[in-house]
Amino acid sequence: MKSSIIDHQSSMAKGVFPATITSNGRIRECFWTMSLEFTGAGATAFAKFRPGQFVQVDVSHLGLPDESLIAPELRDVSKRSILLRRPFSFADVTAGRDKTTAELLFCVLGPASVRLTTLRRGDSLGFLGPLGNGFQVPSGKRLALLVVGGMGAPPIRCLAKLLRAECPDTNVIAFVGAKTAQSLPFEGPFDSVPEHIDFLVPAFAKFGIPSAVATDDGSAGRRGFITERLAQWLDDQRDWSPSGTIIYACGPETMLAAMARLATERNIDCQVSMERRMACGIGVCQSCAVECRVEGSNETVYKLCCQDGPVFDARSVVFLT
Amino acid sequence: MILSVDISVDFAGRRLANPVFTASGTCGYADELADFMDVNRLGGFITKSITRRPRKGNPTPRIVETDAGMLNAIGLANVGLDRFIEEKLPVIARMSVPVFVNVAGELIEEYTAVVERLAREKALAGFELNISCPNVAKGGISFGRDPEQVREITSAVRAAADDKILIVKLSPCVTDISVIARAAVEAGADALSLINTFTAMVIDIETRTPALANRTGGLSGPAIKPIAVYLVNKVYNEVAKPAGIPILGLGGIRTASDAVEFLLAGASAVAVGTASFLEPDCAARIIDGLEDYCARHHVTRLADLVGSLTVPSSLAIG
Fold first, then answer.
1. pLDDT of amino acid B315
2. Which of B277, B281, B285 to mutate to test the interface with A (most CBs of A within 10 A)?
3. What are phi and psi of A183, to 5 degrees?
4. Are residues A110 and A149 in the same domain?
5. Which residue of B has its CA nearest to A302?
6. How many helices and strands, by DSSP H and E, does chain A display?
7. pTM for this structure?
8. Which residue from A310, B175, B242, B285 has the highest number of Cβ atoms inside 10 Å of its Cβ?
9. A309 contacts A133 by C-beta, under 8 angstroms
10. Complex ipTM, two decimals?
């Protein structure tokens, strides 16, 4: 689909903008959510934020929380000093009249994210962004399948809201996978999640989007990978058109690779949001290479996750797994 | 009373508005940082390495962070000479800052082919010869470790460079950097830049594998700054000052105070590298900070700081 109902980042002002933190707290397990408020030039810049775009956050000036507040398995690694910014994709962005609010959903898993937990209401934090290219929403899709693997949740949540607002006639279903019920990065509860599709995940249900859940150990939803769950669901559909369907996915590389295979086999458009270790986020350090096929040849090139992505057409990517 | 400060410096016969460059591989080919600062405010600009043919670069992971630094093993990924000329040179031609093209290769002929082709471009101020990249199988640092090879490649490139300024970039991974510096100067280098990164390694203890696909990478960032200052001071005293050759000092600079250290140690100019990844306008902040430092210390000409390190007699050895 060439025609797009949404202009794809035409001319975009990016920069380093301060945000005021309005809240910061744990959702469950190792997952935290931080609410931010941009004003002035930052409000204008981030009002144009598209789902799938990202920001680079400088946490180098932040101290560690008291050791008793650091998970025992992170006490050692958290002592390392921070030099580089860290990339995050917002889970929600709302543009208001004179301010833009955003939600940063993060998982406490290392020396940078553990420092983010020390921020309190009223504190300020600098965001470099908006960076990269978000999801493209082509017209003519009657069915959009959102696929989340673990910490791939933020950009997909952001996209869910946009789809509901801008494509009211598209049927949207979320497929949410994680290792265990504990590692679902959403507000629960996820005690006895059934196997069938229903309004199971509040973060999607609030937009009227039903979801299917799968976990590796079966502790929530169906046991198995979410990509298998999606394949089964497609098999069960009597009347659906591959050309009228689109898949949007974010999660671990193995999941994205499986998603790309499935989409290719069944001839469904599929966009994946990739992750690579990166330093600058603005295309100068060349760290975040993603190997991509050159159309019509056997050659591959390295594209940059930060500049050419992080959202790629699934069929173009040579996955690492 | 506001003191007027002259922060311009002379660099190999060229007057620069200020001594602050952006370092190769950290600022793109031309105006990539233009969203964040006025690139024309810089004293000089050094492009990402250009090779005769395009290079894909190394597999990922290409970087890993470490305490006060980072390792990179990009592998000289670049668009190659033809696309550089076609796509980047027109942008460079519109920039007023003196632009130096960093040149790399596996064979001497590849270096000279790039330099010969670019030597006639009026938009360019000169070249920086990369004989110190630690992340490629062939070429790179293997030239920069042997004084005979340094002599050979420097004189070949000097002959191809016409009247352009030739900077030779040195590796710290040598037994005596002054021996290498002397070979470059004797073979016709107009300036020396130092230091490139240190070969280093980070191990992922969960998987018991190297953190980088390339196994090793080049260490940069604040972690290497004191070593860089030491090596700049050593090369200044032993080679550059006697020969009247300027040094472009770099290695871990992220503040104006860092830059002043390099100037005092003997660098005529400084380059900002890794710090641009954290603050894309870092170089511009350093220019402002240098002016403030001079005003605070009643220095009217910044160039007077170069090599002005004083060693108290009680500390002087020999």
1. 67
2. B277
3. -95, 20
4. no
5. B56
6. 6, 16
7. 0.93
8. A310
9. yes
10. 0.92
